[in-house]
Amino acid sequence: MSVAPMMDWTDRHCRHLHRLLSRHTLLYTEMVTTGALLHGDVPRHLRFGEAEHPVALQLGGSEPADLAQAARLGAQWGYDEINLNCGCPSERVQRGAFGACLMNEPHLVADCVKAMRDMVDIPVTVKHRIGIDQGEDYGFVRDFVGTVADAGCTVFIVHARNAWLKGLSPKENREIPPLRYDVAARLKADFPYLTIAINGGFQTDAAVQEQLAHVDGVMVGREAYHNPWWLARWDELFFGAAPGLLTREQVEEDMVAYMEREAVEHGTHWYAIARHMLGLRHGLPGARRWRQVWSDHRLKTLPARDVMTLARTRPPTT
Q1: Number of domain units in the chain
Q2: Active site residues
Q3: If you placed Cys at 77, which of 46, 103, 145, 152 could pair as Cys (CB 3.0 to 4.6 Å)?
Q4: Which residues make up the annotated site Interacts with tRNA (predicted)?
């Protein structure tokens, strides 16, 4: 099980929350471009907490030499895996000639993978789509995986939708192209020696279990963010861990303690962290009011612990 890399969502604060809920789930960073690492603020992009392990760094880029240097930085900072983004369809990413458009250049992706593998000792993996635009030829994704595997990549995370490079926004690209889970199962059948994980649209334990009968892993994106408490069952269901005694209240208290440490060590305001846990009480009575308190900008001047007290106080009855 893993949580997908999601821009503006899976920062280190979000990953801290997810790690409180599951000890074994593999976590991914937001995509970090090679330019941001080679010419920008490396600590800002790569800093993470020791408790986040296992955690993977997702890179965006298309120049083998640049990706190799960025991978080297990721390894030096202690990441457990380097993942190459071959699935993002946004116009900004296309202008940089990486993301999903790289699927049209499998030999370049193979060169990128080889350059990174030559630079680091940790796994180098690839996340990709099943096709580009309206093309549904299975041979396209099969040949992509086969070419990249020949360069030494053994783990592929398959977002089971096509990427439409024109006419759809990134949000629409996550919803409109139809899900075709059978493509990932077919890849696993054709490449049994590879690790194939599937991503796209998962919201229930049953849906995950169904796919694990055909592939090696499942990556969950938006549902893990909007309903993070789901992760609290994963260690027991999917990793064979003993049943946990974790409560939402304990997670909230641990997050407040984290907010207090972040304020002292890095000057991070609790409000920037709290946004990631707004789904913690998803589906429970009083969740809406609890969420409103934690997201109320008028309370920014209060300490996080006082905000937690307010959030837990039932509104007066009339």
Answers
A1: 2
A2: 88
A3: 46
A4: 85, 171, 174, 288, 291
201 is in an annotated binding site: yes
Q: What is the pLDDT of residues 245-272, one digit of tens each?
A: 899 999 999 999 999 999 999 999 999 9
39 labeled part of a ligand binding site:
no
Cα separations in angstroms, 260 against 14, 250, 256, 301, 309: 15, 15, 6, 14, 15
pLDDT tens, residue by residue, 180-216: 999 999 999 999 999 999 999 999 999 999 999 999 9
User: Is 219 annotated as belonging to a binding site?
Assistant: no
- Whether 122 is covered by a domain: the verdict is yes
CA-to-CA distance for 124 and 114, rounded, in angstroms?
9
H helices of the chain, where?
A: 12-21, 34-39, 42-46, 64-76, 91-95, 106-119, 138-150, 170-173, 181-190, 205-212, 222-226, 234-239, 248-266, 270-274, 287-294, 304-312
Structure tokens at 172: 């629409």
| Contacting residues for 127 by C-beta, under 8 A, at least 6 apart | 5, 58, 83, 84, 85, 86, 87, 156, 157, 159, 199
Residue owning tokens 């208290």: 253
For residue 232, give Cα distances in angstroms to 15, 18, 23, 211, 280. 14, 9, 9, 20, 11
Q: Which of 261, 163, 157 is nearest to 218 (CA)?
A: 157
Residues 172 and 74 in one domain: yes
Question: Does 210 share its domain with 271?
Answer: no
How far apart are alpha carbons 126 and 112 in whole angstroms?
10
